[in-house]
Amino acid sequence: MATLDDIVARYPAPRFQPLAWLLMGLLVATGLWAWQAKLDTVAVAQGTVVPQGEIKVVQHLEGGVVQAIFVREGTVVEAGQPLLQLDLSTSATNTEELEVRLDGLVLKRARLESEAAGEPLSFPEDVAVRRPVLSAAERRTHESRLDNLEGKVRVLEQQAEQRALEINELNVRRRSVSNDLSLARERYDLSQPLLASKLVTRIELNEIARDVQRLEGELASIDAGLPRARAALEEVEEKLASARQEFRTDASGQLSEVELEIRRQEKLLDRARSEAGRMEIASPIDGVVKTLVHNTVGGVVRPGEPIMEIVPTQDRLVVDARIDPIDIGHIAEGMPATVKITTYDFVRYGGLEGTVTAVGADIEQDEQGKQFFKAEIETAHSYLERDGLTYPIHPGMQATVDIHLGDKTVLDFLIQPVLKMRYEAFRER
Question: Residue 302 half-sphere exposure, CB side, CA atoms within 13 Å?
Fold first, then answer.
């Protein structure tokens, strides 16, 4: 009969001891890993990207006809980027007319300054080159006014010469008459004693006396005429000086009026140029075109009428998230969060890191009756990047928000259901 030792020797034990030790080691290692390894705990919420700032309504002060449209709804625009171009034909025409009128006034001012100062005519070179017809017209006006002045001056100068000649003639006559009078008086004085001796008749003496009286009268007439002649000469000379002064005074008066008109035209031109500059409507902010009211070339835009709306975009985004009431007790301001934009696959494009900036104090309810708490998450960027390309995120996009609540070990995750069952099981009636 075989003994126990014979049986053992005949049927050796299977060699599973090394495998058992290996499995035991794996179990221990797994337990240690589950005890040490930590996983992120998150509260998942659905959200919507909202604009950070007020929506800007684009309008135009004067209105006009749509000439070109550079954007469409959903276009991402930057501040200063052209959005729309209007046809402001009236403003353009007014601008050109005002420029011509202003240049004409500048040329007229140069002419009047020359006339007021009595200096040679000189026009601003740039205006004269730009407006040759106007400068030629002002030059002709200047020459015509000078010719008119010179004509008056020549007439007055001739009158002055005539008056001077008259004075000279009167002086010559006075000297001649004065000499004749002296001789006549001398003859009378010599002839009077001869009357007694009858060497001179009474008739001859009376004739000499009549000559003396005639010459005295003529001399008195000349003496009376000289002041009148001198006064006439002075009057002509005053008229001559007055003609030149009136010419300059008239030029100075017109110059003052032209200066005022130039300032008025400059203001009108600035306003017209401002209107012309508003032909191209630019975006006031960085943003996204939301509502395009006028999307047809040729459409009429009324003054002050809304043309489009721009939703602002900034370096940061704000996401309105709806928090499940179950999770609200674990969420507080300042908690980190990861925003996954639904439009962009999270596996390919990744997400945006953000922070909880506000948590609603009261529960809200949507149209379907689902209750939630509102929370705001602000991100560090407003775009996603992949392979060197930038993918913008616009207001209105849907997002999934993972709010990071803390860390748990794998062991916690494994034993939590067991503990929950322990506390909740065998309690029903």
Answer: 2
Q: In what helix (H) or strand (E) does residue 48 lie, and over which residues does it extend?
A: strand 38-50
| Residue 55: DSSP 8-state | P
Q: Please provide the average confidence, as pLDDT, over all residues in the chain.
A: 77
CA atoms of 299 and 281, how far apart (whole Å): 15
Q: Which is more confident, 36 or 108?
A: 108
The CB-based long-range contact list for 349-355 (8 Å cut-off, 24+ gap) reads 349/384, 349/386, 349/391, 350/384, 350/386, 351/384, 351/402, 352/317, 352/379, 352/380, 352/381, 352/384, 352/393, 353/379, 353/380, 354/317, 354/319, 354/378, 354/379, 354/380, 354/401
Q: Are strands 38-50 and 308-312 parallel, antiparallel or unpaired?
A: unpaired
CA end-to-end span of the chain, whole Å? Answer: 64
Mean pLDDT lowest for which of 33-37, 95-99, 144-148? 33-37
Helices (H), 77-131: 89-117, 125-130
> In what helix (H) or strand (E) does residue 9 lie, and over which residues does it extend?
helix 4-10
Q: What is the mean pLDDT of residues 345-370?
A: 86
CA–CA separation, 52 and 286 (whole Å): 11
- Strand partners for 338: 353, 402
- Indicate the residue type of 92: A
- 194: its two tokens: 């001869």
Structure tokens at 5: 């030792």
Contact yes or no for 386/334 (Cβ under 8 A): no
- Look at residue 10 in the predicted model and tell me its pLDDT: 58
If you average pLDDT over each of 39-48, 134-143, 279-288, which comes out highest? 134-143
Torsion of CA 263, 257, 153, 225, to 10 degrees: -150
Q: Which residues contact 222 (CB under 8 A, 6 or more apart)?
A: 170, 173, 174, 177
Using one digit for the tens of pLDDT, what is the confidence trace for 260-319? 988 988 888 777 776 655 567 778 877 778 777 777 777 777 777 787 778 776 656 788
Give the chain's radius of gyration (CA, Å). 57
Q: Decide: helix, strand or coil at residue 407.
A: strand
Q: Is 419 left (phi over 0), alpha (psi -120 to 50) or beta?
A: alpha
Alpha-carbon distance of 40 to 7, in angstroms, equals: 58
